Amino acid sequence: MRMLSYHTKMRLRKVFTVLGILALVALLLWICWLVWLQRFIVYTRDGVVFNFDRSTTNLSGKEEGQVQPGETVALDISLAETVEETPTGLQPLTGFYADSELLSEEFEALQAQLEALEPGTAVLLDVKSKFGNFYYTTGLTGASQSTAVDAGAMDSLIRTLRQKDLYLIARVPAFRDSAFAQANLSCGLAVASGALWTDEDQCYWLDPANTQVMRNLIQLCRELRNLGFDEVVFTDFRIPDSGSIVYSASSSKDQIIRDAAAQLVTACASDQFTVSFQASSGFQLPEGQCRLYLENVAPEQAAATASGAAVGDSARLVFLTDTRDTRFDEYSVLRRIL
User: Fold this and answer.
1) How far, in Å, CA of 338 to CA of 96, rounded?
2) Which terminus of the chain, N or C, has less C-beta within 10 A?
3) C-alpha to C-alpha distance for 232 and 270, rounded to whole angstroms
């Protein structure tokens, strides 16, 4: 058997080393390509497709180089994707909701009950925590994923419920978002020292008059629509009433909130997608395809609350309750499923 010479062995070793390096580089490039492709994945009712026209907007909600961080202006954002469709009317809702507690602690039991629902049933899911962590796999660059809820399991649940032709509603904290505030300090509400203001749960809040904040909410709204949700409900849609917050603006706080709500409905709502708000019964809904969601209303107060709500049309009012009391049944109502 002929033995290879020392020089031949050294040449072969160099060749194999180079080939190994090239293979490793190719593997890394392939992985990066797969990661890059993820931002263009769109879940539709017909399956999964690639949409290379999707925005590459980052977590701040702005296109790179177009918006200066910390810019606070009147809410006159001009958006190419603004929907001009006329709402065709809202239908009464009957169904269930699953809050963050159920998703994090009772996911398997929750999944079984949701998958057993009849087509057309309304289902509301919390999709983001008050700390800014996403429960599903978001395409927003830099977003913070939750460790309390398995994002892969949540993605699968959303696809399954969509395929069952349920009416899907995503619930999202609007201006209560610690993760976004920490990543964009100029967008948060601050105290006199310049530090971010925190509420009783040690959460940071965002400035509704900030362009960067509004762009982020609009981008999130569109992502949820692309995932197959029929409606989004924004909670914590207000400026906290605290004397510690140093806040100055040309408009009143109530006007800023009304402008923000109108901006979201104008930019995102259509006869195929509803943009709603969970607030107090006195919340002024903007014109367009939107609803007002009320929680923690006692059954004996349902009728009086409904008649006093500033919604104009009873189809625009939805009660959220953890009781089975029948006094809610003449209205749109979603009950806690477990």
Assistant:
1) 9
2) N
3) 12
> CA-CA distances (angstroms) from residue 202 to 131, 178, 246?
9, 9, 18
Q: Is the CB of residue 284 less than 8 Å from the CB of residue 257? A: no
Residue 18 binned pLDDT confidence (cut-offs 50, 70, 90): confident
Distances (CA, A) of 136 to 40, 140, 316: 16, 11, 27
In whole numbers, what is the pLDDT of the chain averaged over residues?
Answer: 85
Half-sphere exposure of 333 (CA within 13 A, CB side): 20
| 8 Å CB contact between 180 and 187 | yes
* Number of neighbouring beta carbons within 10 Å of residue 193: 7
- The answer to whether the CB of 317 falls within 8 A of the CB of 292 is yes
Range list of H helices, the chain: 6-38, 100-105, 107-115, 151-163, 178-183, 211-227, 253-268, 302-308
Q: How far apart are CA 103 and CA 111, in angstroms?
A: 9
**Cβ neighbours for 120, distance < 8 A, ≥ 6 positions apart:** 165, 166, 167
**CA 333, chain centre distance (Å):** 22
DSSP label of 117: S
* Across 29-58, average pLDDT: 54
Nearest Cα to 214, choosing from 273, 268, 294?
Answer: 268
- Reported as a single tens digit per residue, the pLDDT across 272-317 is 999 999 999 999 999 999 999 999 999 999 999 999 998 988 889 9
What's the CA gap between 199 and 111, in Å, rounded?
32
Tens digits of per-residue pLDDT, 167-180? 999 999 999 999 99
What is the number of alpha carbons within 13 Å of residue 51 lying toward its C-beta? 14
Instruction: Tell me the pLDDT band of 251, cut-offs 50, 70 and 90.
Output: confident
Distance CA 180, CA 153 (A): 24
DSSP single-letter state for residue 184: S
